[in-house]
Amino acid sequence: MSAAPKNAPPVQKPPRWQGNEQALRAVQVAFDVEEAVMEAIRVAAFHGNVSTSTQIRQVLGLPVPARPKRPRLTVTLSESDYALLASRYGLKPDDRLGIKEKATRELMAFVPPQMPQMAKPGEKSGS
């Protein structure tokens, strides 16, 4: 391998990567607390329609983004989880995109029809 020349200009990052440098340096922290604390955080997050991470940031007095950058649901899947889902969906375990698409549809079907709209924080619900 050859090293880059000493006077070479810094490598330009694609524009869509330029805002991600801080996020790459962020560290996820896990708090070992009692069940009552976890439940209180989750319930407050649910009622505030925010993620548990955002709720923790609010409790700790840290800055909170005005709205989520990429609102999404996340789950960690193991190789055996992919195999199970692949079997259920009639796909190959290495078809990760196909599995994700089928799982997304299954999650979307989880929402009952005519689910009542929840009031946003600060709004009154009803008539």
Q: What does this protein look like?
A:
This protein is mainly α and 127 residues long. It has helices at 21-25, 35-48, 52-59, 79-89, 96-109. Helix 2 (35-48) crosses helix 3 (52-59) and helix 4 (79-89) crosses helix 5. The protein is extended. The relative contact order is 0.06.
Describe the structure in brief.
By secondary structure, the protein is mostly helical. The protein has helices spanning 21-25, 35-48, 52-59, 79-89, 96-109.
What Rg, in angstroms, do the CA atoms define? 21 Å
Kindly report how far apart the N and C termini lie. 70 Å
Order of helices and strands: HHHHH
Q: Estimate percent helicity.
A: 40-55%
Broad structural category: mainly alpha
Q: How many helices?
A: 5
Strand content of the residues, in percent?
under 5%
Number of strands: 0
Rounded mean pLDDT is 81
Largest sheet: none
Parts with pLDDT < 50 across at least 5 consecutive residues: none
Task: Tell the overall outline.
Answer: extended
Q: Which features does this protein show?
A:
127 residues; mainly alpha; 5 helices; 41% helix
